[in-house]
Write a structure and sequence with these properties.
Helices cover about 35% and strands about 20% of the residues. It is globular. By secondary structure, the protein is of the alpha/beta class. It has a single domain, classed as 3-Layer(aba) Sandwich (Rossmann fold). It is built from five helices and five strands. Helix 3 packs parallel to helix 4. Strand 3, helix 4 and strand 4 form a beta-alpha-beta unit. The protein has a five-stranded parallel sheet with strand order 2-1-3-4-5, with helices on both faces. The structure holds 1,3,4-trihydroxy-5-OXO-cyclohexanecarboxylic acid (DQA). 1,3,4-trihydroxy-5-OXO-cyclohexanecarboxylic acid binds next to loops.
C-alpha cells in the first residue's frame, strides 16, 4: 500500500510552533517513527506553505496512490481550490488535524475538505496521522 501524507502551511514549524496546541515533536521525527511502525506501508511526505504546491501534489499522486492523509492546516478553512482538487482525483483523502478545531475559534469550524474527504480525524495530536494510516489498512 502506498500512502502520501501532505501537510499545509506552518506545519513545518511543528515542535516549535505553539507547543501547548501542537506538541513538542517535529514532523520529520514523527514521520520516521510512523515509517518504522508500518514497514509494510510505502509512505511519502510532502509539506508546503504554498496553496498551489499542495494542489499540484494532490493532482500528482491522486491517480496512483492508495490514500492521501491531508492536513491542509489554515487552508482547510479557506481553500475552494484544495477542495476542488480532492474532487478531481480518484485516490481517497482522509482529512486530519492535530488539534480539535471545533473546540477552537469559530473560523476553524469551517472546512472545505470535510465534504469531499473519505473521513475526518482530529484532536488526537500527532496520533491523528497514525489513526488515519490504520483506517487505510483496514
Ligand atoms: C490544524 C488546525 C488549523 O486550524 C490550523 O490553521 C493549523 C493546524 C491542526 O492540525 O490542528 O495550522 O490543521
Amino acid at each position: 500500500m502506498k500512502l502520501m501524507i501532505i501537510n499545509g502551511p506552518n506545519l513545518n514549524l511543528l515542535g516549535k510552533r505553539e507547543p501547548e496546541v501542537y506538541g513538542n515533536q517535529n514532523f520529520e521525527d514523527y514521520f520516521l517513527s510512523l515509517k518504522s511502525k508500518y514497514p509494510s506501508v510505502e509512505m511519502d511526505y510532502f509539506q508546503s506553505n504554498i496553496e498551489g504546491e499542495l494542489i499540484d501534489k494532490i493532482q500528482e499522486v491522486g491517480f496512483s496512490y492508495d490514500g492521501i492523509i491531508l492536513n491542509a492546516a489554515a487552508y482547510t478553512h479557506t481553500s475552494v481550490g484544495i477542495g476542488d482538487a480532492i474532487k478531481a482525483i480518484v485516490t481517497p483523502v482522509i482529512e486530519v488535524h492535530i488539534s480539535n478545531t471545533y473546540s477552537r475559534e469559530e473560523f476553524r469550524h469551517t472546512s472545505f475538505i470535510s465534504p469531499v474527504a473519505k473521513g475526518v480525524i482530529l484532536g488526537f495530536g500527532l496520533q491523528s496521522y497514525d489513526l488515519a494510516i490504520q483506517s487505510f489498512m483496514d
